[in-house]
Write a structure and sequence with these properties.
heterodimer; A: 292 residues; mainly alpha; 12 helices; 78% helix; disordered N terminus; B: 371 residues; alpha+beta; six-stranded mixed β-sheet; 9 helices; 34% strand; disordered C terminus
Amino acid sequence: MSSSLNRAPTSAAMVEPPLVRWILIVTALIFLTLFLFAPLAAVFYEALRKGIGVYLAAIADPYALAAIRLTLVSTAIAVPLNMVFGVAAAWAIAKFEFRGKSVLITLIDLPFAVSPVIAGLIYVLLFGAQGWLGPWLSAHDVKIIFAVPGIVLATVFVTVPFIARELIPLMQAQGADEEEAALVLGASGWLTFWRITLPNIRWGLLYGVVLCTARAMGEFGAVSVVSGHIRGLTNTLPLHVEILYNEYQFAAAFACASLLTLLALVILAFKTLIERHAFQQRRAALASSEVS
Amino acid sequence: MSIEIQGLHKRFGTFVALDGIDLNVPPGQLVALLGPSGCGKTTLLRIIAGLETADRGRVLFDGNDATRRHVQERGVGFVFQHYALFQHMTVFENVAFGLRVRPRAVRPTETAIRDKVSALLGLVQMDWLANRYPSQLSGGQRQRIALARALAVEPQVLLLDEPFGALDTKVRKELRRWLRRLHDELHITSVFVTHDQEEALEVADQIVVMNHGRIEQIGSPQEVYDVPATPFVYQFLGNINLFHSRVHAGWARVGGLRVQVPEYGDTEHVPAMAYVRPHDIDLLREPEDEDTALTATVSRVSQLGSLVRLELVQRPSGEIAEVEMTRERYAADPLRIGDLVFVKPRQARVFLHDRLVVVPLVHWHGDGDGI
């Protein structure tokens, strides 16, 4: 089954003439070279241009390390939060009928539609010093904007759709039959979730987590608005890259950028690994639901 | 365990799924809920299981009210149309699931679970597949495993929702015989939902015919087939031909046949409909007497294994009727396409117009007005 997964249709009617095939392939290659491979190579070339010493120094810089730490921390908070929210939302949408379901689906998609900068501004308007809750927050000595909580909030906001979007179609295709079977057999709701629902969505969930992680680490716009760019305190890695670049420290900027790029490549590898399983799971669910 | 249903109502939005259901399932019986799709049969089954809650009415198990009992505590076995096997577990673990999720205090030991599952897999003749995954099994095998899984928790009631609906005809026939045998061994009170009249007639002790959220008739397979209580039941169980007729003083006439309808004893010349099964019709070359005035031409002859089905076009209206006869009977006097025949029902059931349903399958303007 897995071997037939990525196979394109090979019927005679679907085979293009050689010329067309060549044009298509060359176009795709030129495009990829221009927009993907060249920038990728440029990042590493620029990063290492002044030697490995400068490269390592740029990364070992305390501000850079602080930025890495903050990026990892906000990712480590945002991803689990979105996991819980994504599973809960997908569960509710896929397995139950309720009023306002379509509103909920639209709301989940909102962060995709809204510019990240706007997302950041919303939090400034809400929690900032001049914002609605600002006076109350400062009275209680809680700092959200220009502090770590704001960065986490902004990251969570922009990454909300990733896991839920991945799980909703999967769970909808799977239906509630297996859960009902487990309940009839005497399993509690909690047991049913752990033993039936979660194993059934594990690959889709993992896939969503990987996408969510990539986005959480790379987020710039929303975080930039709420961060305040305090070096060593509220700078994430993407923000740190920007600051270095603006200060004409190109080698250091590209060194940090190369770190982000490496992370992205690792995630991409993960994604490819998981993708097969995730799509198999989806196909299996679709195949079993098509019977009806 | 007996099941008693009292005054069950259920609606989904504006759609009335169940409209006042009263039903008694005696202990140890195998009962079929039969009806077209959307008649509420699956909803009824799911309410008995506790997967759905009724708006009104009660469900009693052995006389005890189970209406508010949660699905986990009802002690029922449920078999789904699409098996609902746990995809990520082996056949063995699927069957063992119901035992493993019990609270620690009442959970059997690992050895006991092993013995029990092996015994059940033996019962459904699948012990050699214990380590396979559901995706590696055929539909028929999956449904047997689903049944073994349902039986593992020793349910007092077994509920089956179109258990053979997703299988092909041959496997379906085999499995329903096997289900009947299994039921005769275990004597567990069972209710199964089907829209296949043949399945219901073959397997069930009692058939509950449902339509539009109501029960049309409850009876043994023979009762519902031979003495349908309503036009709907007549139409739903087997093919029929409809003849216009008239009832007068407890008698109706259909073709050359006089039918006694004592329940309409005090009616006078009321238009009625006569329902005749395709195999309850004789075709004559010559009229017997002046009553046999239904004439038709043969428009089609199909050989269906042991049966021969003839399609007739009535003269002069041009409407179609179906007649079935055995191969031998047909061979004695083979009718050809275009032959003129006289139609004489051997048996008919007559319903007055006000009890008619709106969906006649084959409509025949007979000579009922001659009464």
